[in-house]
Design goal:
This protein is of the alpha/beta class. Helix 6 packs parallel to helix 7. The longest helix is centred in the N-terminal third of the chain and has 22 residues, at 57-78. The protein has helices spanning 5-9, 27-43, 57-78, 121-126, 142-155, 167-179, 198-207, 219-226, 233-240, 251-259, 268-273, 281-297, 327-345; strands at residues 51-52, 83-87, 94-96, 117-119, 134-139, 162-164, 184-189, 212-217, 302-305, 309-310, 316-324. The chain has 13 helices and eleven strands. Strands 2, 5, 6, 7, 8, 9, 10 and 11 form an eight-stranded mixed sheet that branches. The radius of gyration is 20 Å and the shape is globular. A hairpin with a 5-residue loop joins strand 10 (309-310) and strand 11.
C-alpha cells in the first residue's frame, strides 16, 4: 500500500482525519480504513496474538460484515446516535486464516507469525462507517482480552474499552445499561460451542426489546456432539433455555422422539443443504427449530437462518441466525446470508 511510516508513529488517534465523526459514512471509507488496519497489523502489529481460524470462517465474516454495515446505515438514518453494537465473545480482534500447519509441526498460538490476516468482529465494528455511536466488547479469555485491548488502544483510543468476563453474567448488565440511553442494538453472539446460555438472550431482549441478535448456532460443531455426551446435558439445557419451561418440549424430549422414530422425515431442504447427515437429519432439524422457537418466545417476530456453513471437506458445521422484530431487517439478513454462502461456494 505504499509508504507506511505515518502508521508506525501512532501519534494521537490512529485514524484521525479518517474517523467518520459526522456519522454519514460510506462503504468506500469503511474499506479504506480496514485496509489500513490490516496493513498496520502486518507491518507494526499492536499485538502478536492472533486467533487461528479455518477457511470456513470467511463465509461467517462476510455475513457479519454485510449485516453490520446495513444495520448501521439504516439506524444512522432513523435513530442517529442512538444505537449500539455488542460483541459478547469478541476475541483478539485479528484472525489468522492460513491453511494450517504442516503435519507434525507444533507451535503455540501466540508464537505463530501472521499469514493471511482478517479483521475480527470488534475491529470490523470499530472501522464501520457510519460509526456505531456506542460499542461494548466482551472477552473472557486472558490472551485474547489483552490482545484486543492493545489493538483498541492503539487504533481507537477513547472509542471504547474491552470488558473481561463471562458473557452470560455481563450481557444482562450491559443491556440494562444501554437501555438507559437507547432502544436499539445489534448483539453478536459468536461462540465456539455452547458458551452462550439462553437466559442471557432473554435478559438482552427484556432490557432492549428492539435489539437484534445475530447468533452462531453450532448445530454440528457442538450440539450434535453433546447430545450423546451425558456430562454435557446440563450445558445443553442452559444453551436451549430449557431450564425455564415455556410450554415447549425440551431438547431431551426432541431427541427421545427422534430415537422412537416419531419426528417423521426431514425437510427436503435440510437434506439438500446438509448431505451426509442422513438418518440424523430429523433430530438436527428439530433441535434447530427448537432454538428458533425459543428466540421467537423472546419477542423476535422475524427470524432468518443461513444455509449451513461447511468445512473445506464438506462437513456441515453451523448456521447463522438473525433474530429481529423487523421484517425488512430479516429480509436483508437473509439476502446477506445467501450472498455470503454463494460467494464462498463460487
Amino acid at each position: 500500500m505504499g509508504e507506511t511510516a505515518p502508521i508506525a508513529k501512532r501519534a494521537g488517534p490512529f485514524f484521525k482525519g479518517i474517523l467518520d465523526t459526522s456519522g454519514i459514512g460510506s462503504q468506500a471509507r469503511t474499506r479504506l480504513e480496514r485496509d489500513l488496519l490490516l496493513e498496520s497489523e502486518r507491518l507494526f502489529p499492536a499485538s502478536s496474538f492472533y486467533r487461528r481460524v479455518r477457511p470456513h470462517s470467511a463465509e461467517k465474516l462476510a455475513a457479519v460484515r454485510g449485516y453490520m454495515w446495513s444495520y448501521s446505515a439504516i439506524m444512522n438514518k432513523k435513530h442517529p446516535k442512538s444505537f449500539a453494537f455488542v460483541d459478547a465473545l469478541a476475541g483478539p480482534g485479528v484472525l489468522d486464516l492460513r491453511e494450517g500447519l504442516q503435519k507434525g509441526q507444533k507451535v503455540l498460538e501466540e508464537d505463530v507469525l501472521p499469514g493471511e490476516l482478517a479483521l475480527g468482529s470488534p475491529l470490523l465494528a470499530l472501522s464501520n462507517h457510519p460509526n456505531y455511536p456506542e460499542l461494548r466488547l466482551v472477552e473472557a479469555s486472558l490472551q485474547p482480552f489483552k490482545a484486543l485491548s492493545a489493538r483498541v488502544e492503539a487504533y481507537y483510543p477513547g472509542r471504547t474499552t474491552v470488558e473481561r468476563g463471562n458473557c452470560n453474567l455481563l450481557l444482562p448488565w450491559i443491556a440494562a445499561d444501554l437501555a438507559t440511553r437507547m432502544d436499539h442494538a445489534l448483539v453478536l453472539l459468536d461462540p465456539e460451542g455452547l458458551e452462550v446460555e439462553f437466559k442471557a438472550i432473554r435478559e438482552i431482549r427484556r432490557a432492549l426489546p428492539k435489539a437484534e441478535i445475530l447468533v452462531l448456532y453450532p448445530s454440528f460443531m457442538a450440539v450434535a456432539r453433546c447430545i450423546v455426551h451425558r456430562p454435557s446435558f446440563s450445558k445443553l439445557t442452559r444453551f436451549f433455555g430449557d431450564d425455564i419451561n415455556e410450554g415447549a418440549p425440551s431438547w431431551m424430549d426432541i431427541c427421545e422422539l427422534a430415537h422412537e422414530g416419531m419426528l417423521g422425515s426431514a425437510d427436503e431442504r435440510l437434506l439438500d443443504e446438509e448431505p451426509g447427515v442422513g438418518a440424523d437429519a430429523p433430530v438436527h432439524e428439530a433441535l434447530r427449530a427448537h432454538y428458533t422457537k425459543r428466540l421467537a418466545q423472546t419477542g423476535c417476530t422475524h427470524i432468518e437462518v443461513s444455509p449451513v456453513v461447511r468445512s473445506r471437506a464438506g462437513r456441515p458445521l453451523y448456521h447463522l441466525i438473525l433474530a429481529s422484530t423487523n421484517a425488512t431487517a430479516a429480509r436483508i439478513g437473509g439476502d446477506i446470508f445467501s450472498s455470503a454462502h454463494a460467494a464462498r461456494r463460487g
